[in-house]
Design brief:
- By secondary structure, the chain is of the alpha/beta class.
- The protein has 4 domains: 159 residues, 3-Layer(aba) Sandwich (Rossmann fold), CATH 3.40.50; 58 residues; 209 residues, Rossmann fold, CATH 3.40.50; 65 residues.
- The protein is built from 21 helices and 18 strands.
- The strands form 4 sheets. It has a 6-stranded mixed sheet with strand order 5-6-7-3-8-9, with helices on both faces. It has a 6-stranded mixed sheet with strand order 14-15-16-12-17-18, sandwiched between helices.
- A hairpin with a 3-residue loop joins strand 10 and strand 11.
- The N terminus is likely disordered.
- GO terms for molecular function: ATP binding; ATP hydrolysis activity; DNA binding.
- This is ABC transporter related protein.
- Pfam families: ABC_tran, ABC_tran_CTD, ABC_tran_Xtn.
- It comes from Thermanaerovibrio acidaminovorans (strain ATCC 49978 / DSM 6589 / Su883) (Selenomonas acidaminovorans).
- Keywords: ATP-binding, Nucleotide-binding.
């Protein structure tokens, strides 16, 4: 990375921070530090204050008490809510959001000012300093190769070739979040704050993002419920609990082990406190009427008063969801023949597949590949352009999509709407399911219309799970679930007896519940047996085989064919000739690069010299000399811009030779 980082010292510092919303306490005297260069996962149940803490660090909220300090200055914040991006094309937004387009425009305007006559000493010095600052910013953002770097980031996040030229307004909310994420990655902040960065990404883009963040040299705090993502990019886990923040070093599993040890220690202490109380009260009851024991009784009572209660946290993991029993249904649950969907292009084409009773399928693929379209086809929510989907006799379908919350009756209460999903569960069982999805007694009588978008989504999912269906189609059901709720949800699906198809970016979740994988790629469907991890292994094997095949084809087309009976010496001679050919090609490019590099070195040296002269009070006293130096500095900057661009062209040509 181009810019220097503040490492070793504490970069984020919270001291005695308090935050509350009406009567609800979010943070209560919280202290927390994040050292420079640290990557931390911020976890805790929904509603504990993770997003609020991120907003405090980003400066978008102020605490009611205490202080929040961030050293370093440059913060990149990705909120959880859908962001507004634009106006203009994606590339225009990225250059503006990173401050590059403004810096280049200002630099051009500044260089025009520097060429004007009649500048006094103070103006000249101020212009020189501002010029140096702007030039440094452009170099930090790798401004002269920014577009190529931005296109690589966009490709990693799942955008297609040419998307950088499309208007931001043409993209859906999820893709706009990707554009905002790209702008944060490209801006090279000192502190990166990512609130659920994987929510709008497919699994391939998540894996690319993990690789990018591992190389990020700054400080990062990420809110995530994706255990695999946390282990891939962070070195510590910070948990919000009881209004405080506590950090645990190591992986997510290390954090869970430490929490279990703490909970067991607390239970042991609670049992010990209870034993002491019982023994003390037994002693008091036995000897309270004996004068000779009066002082001992009083001493024991005082000890009892000083004994502190141990507060044990209620574990939501003890909650269980019972999905109603469903009709057994046929062996062949669903059959698709020649399935195709045409929008402005063929999204799906010639798909043939079957679902059998007990199948548990993970549907994966890049965003925009057609996963949600295929789910709607299976749920009979959309008519294909060609082909057909047939359900077996007696199949009852339950479909959860990202639009399912729109199908709730907003006029009813939370409990009434949940209750309408099933007549097989008792009221108490319905309330248990609601509790598992974070709807406590204070939510049951609330009108559905006052719920947030995430709460409506959880209610729609809970309602579908309470319906007696034997084909469950779930499109991104895990987006608004915290770790505990996700565990309860996975346990319910483990016990589910019907057929399941699920789209999710949560890879551990897919590993746990699925036994087949359908990958949508280039309009086709590729089927794999096994869980998600097995699918990744198979796909990598296929990619390696394709790479070996390309190398074989390249070798056969470039290298002379070995004649039957040709000697080893002849083969080595041909290899040497190929090495010499590549050397001559590289040497020719390097010869063209050498004068460019010398010119850059000379121009940078002279520019540094001129900038030093413009800081010399003796020089600044000579207005004519200042004017001359300012004009020279402007010319040097323009010359360097062209030299940098030429050097990058030659470097790319050299890389292509191999």
């Amino acid at each position: 990375m181009a810019n220097q980082r503040l490492e070793g010292s504490d970069l984020i510092i919270l001291e005695g921070v308090s935050l509350r919303y009406q009567d609800r306490v979010i943070l209560d005297g919280a202290d927390w530090v994040v050292p420079g260069g640290e990557k931390v996962a911020l976890v805790g149940p929904n509603g504990c204050g993770k997003t609020s803490l991120m907003r405090l660090i980003a400066g978008e909220e102020s605490p009611h008490g205490g202080s929040v300090k961030v050293r370093g200055g440059r913060i990149g914040y990705l909120p959880q809510d859908i962001a507004q991006v634009g106006p203009g094309t994606v590339m225009e937004f990225l250059t503006a959001r990173c401050g590059l387009s403004q810096a280049m425009e200002e630099l051009k305007r500044l260089e025009g000012r520097m060429g004007e006559a009649g500048l006094d000493q103070g103006e000249a010095l101020a212009l020189a300093r501002e010029h140096d600052r702007l030039h440094g910013l452009i170099l930090r953002l790798e401004g002269y190769s920014f577009e190529a770097r931005a296109r690589r980031v966009l490709w990693g996040l799942g955008f297609r070739e040419g998307d950088h030229e499309r208007d931001c307004g043409r993209f859906s909310g999820g893709w706009k979040m990707r554009i905002l994420l790209a702008s944060i990655l490209l801006s090279e902040p000192d502190v990166m704050l990512l609130d659920e960065p994987t929510n709008h990404l497919d699994t391939e883009s998540i894996e690319w993002l993990e690789g990018y963040l591992r190389q990020f040299e700054g400080t990062m705090v990420a809110v995530s419920h994706d255990r695999r993502f946390i282990n891939a990019v962070t070195s510590a886990v910070a948990e919000i609990r009881g209004g405080r923040v506590r950090t645990y070093r190591g992986s997510y599993e290390d954090y869970l082990a430490a929490r279990r040890s703490e909970e067991e220690a607390a239970r042991r202490r609670a049992r010990e406190v209870q034993r002491i109380r019982e023994d003390t009260m037994e002693f008091v009851q036995r000897f309270r009427c004996k004068a000779s024991k009066a002082s001992q009784v009083q001493s024991r009572l005082k000890q009892l008063e000083r004994l502190e209660d141990v507060q044990l946290e209620a574990s939501r993991r003890e909650v269980r969801i019972r999905i109603p029993s469903c009709p057994r249904g046929p062996e062949l649950v669903l059959e698709a023949k020649g399935l195709g969907v045409l929008y402005d292009r063929w999204i799906l084409r010639d798909l043939d597949f079957e679902l059998h009773r007990g199948d548990r399928v993970a549907l994966v693929g890049y965003n925009g590949s057609g996963k949600s379209t295929l789910m709607r086809l299976m749920a009979s929510q959309q008519v294909p352009t060609e082909g057909q989907v047939r359900l077996g006799q007696g199949v009852v379908t339950g479909f959860f999509s990202q639009d399912s919350s729109e199908n709730l009756d907003y006029r009813g209460t939370v409990f009434k709407e949940a209750r309408s999903g099933s007549d097989q569960l008792t009221d108490q069982e319905v309330k248990s399911v609601l509790g598992a999805f974070l709807f406590g007694p204070d939510h049951w009588d609330l009108p559905v219309e006052v719920l947030s978008g995430g709460e409506k989504s959880r209610l729609a999912l809970a309602k579908i799970l309470m319906s007696p269906v034997n084909l469950l189609l779930l499109d991104e059901p895990t987006n608004h679930l915290d770790e505990d709720t996700l565990e309860i949800f996975a346990e319910a699906l483990d016990a589910y007896q019907g057929t399941l198809v699920v789209v999710s970016h949560h890879r551990d979740f897919l590993d746990r519940i699925c036994n087949r994988v359908f990958e949508v790629r280039d309009g086709c469907l590729h089927q794999y047996v096994g869980n998600y991890s097995r699918f990744i292994e198979r796909r990598r094997e296929q990619e390696r085989e394709r790479e070996r095949e390309r190398e074989r084809e390249l070798g056969s087309s470039q290298a002379p064919q070995r004649r039957e009976g040709s000697s080893l010496r002849e083969e080595r001679r041909r290899e040497a000739e190929e090495r010499n050919r590549l050397y001559r090609l590289r040497k020719a490019v390097e010869d063209r690069m050498a004068p460019v590099e010398r010119a850059i070195e000379e121009a940078e040296g002279r520019k540094s010299q001129v900038e030093s002269m413009l800081c010399d009070p003796e020089v600044l006293s000579d207005s004519a000399l200042v004017q001359e130096l300012m004009v020279e500095l402007s010319g040097l900057s323009s010359s360097l811009e062209g030299l940098y661009a030429r050097w990058e062209e030659l470097a790319a040509e050299l890389d292509s030779i191999g």
